Amino acid sequence: xxxxxxxxxxxxxxxxxxxLLEGAATNVAAAAQLLDRELRTGDPGRFAEMRREMKEFxxxxxxxxxxxxxxxxxxFVTPIEREDILQLTxxxxxxxxxxxxxxxxxxxxxxETVMPALMQLxxxxxxxxxxxxxxxxxxxxxxNIKDIRARILHCHVLENQAxxxxxxxxxxxxxxxxxPIELIKWKELLSFTEDATDRIELVAQVVGSTVMKNA
Length: 215
Fold this sequence. Notes:
82% of the residues lie in helices and 0% in strands. It is mostly helical and 215 residues long. The protein has one domain: Phosphate transport system protein phou homolog 2, domain 2 (Methane Monooxygenase Hydroxylase, Chain G, domain 1), CATH 1.20.58. α6 (145-175) runs antiparallel to α7 (180-214). The relative contact order is 0.15.
């Protein structure tokens, strides 16, 4: 039996950390679904309400982050390493922050028509955050390593797909620019949205390294 395995059995099981991390992952997935769903309505009249609802997800993510950090400061022994909990906490929160920024910019820039590429990215994000829910839940037992690895790989594939969509969209908006203001708006929107996929992959990577250390 490895030292890590022995310590897992000896130290108290502070399962609340898993509860909070799972809550953070579920919050991220719900935020992604909101953005994707509302953009697909094609109704800019709904975007202000989307922004309000997204801000609620962002606030909830912040609350979970603060509670996790507070508990880390109070608890001596944690079920997985403190650094991994902290990194996962911030990485999950970063995804929601990026989605919140996208919603903010959509309203601020008074976007009327959504580029298909943006919806391709948000669809990718929905799929990726769905994988994060499974991956974070898997930290409780770390029993199905094959499934964990497959989901991490899928997040990596999704991030690569998002990169391709992002670069193709950039090429499109720069090909025949007629309005430099519109170009700047869409370049920023696409960049923030694509960055959310990078953050999703980071969460998956942290889960993978955590599992490797504890398996």
